[in-house]
Design goal:
Blueprint (H helix, E strand, L loop, with lengths): L17 H14 L3 H17 L5
Length: 56
């Protein structure tokens, strides 16, 4: 078996709070955007937030 058949993506594993996961599933169904794309967007936003913190 190949170790990876993905050319532009990396696999990772994690766990989510059950409530967050339920809302996440609802969002994927409502928007018809797959979980990988939504996670890309969310993590991109988090990286941006912590790379450039605003002063409060």
């Amino acid at each position: 078996m190949k170790t990876s058949d993905l050319k532009t993506r990396d696999r990772f594993s994690s766990t989510l709070d059950k409530g967050i996961n339920e809302k996440f599933q609802q969002l994927t169904e409502k928007t018809r955007i797959n979980k990988s794309k939504l996670l890309d967007e969310a993590i991109r936003d988090l990286v941006k937030k912590y790379e450039n913190p605003t002063k409060e």
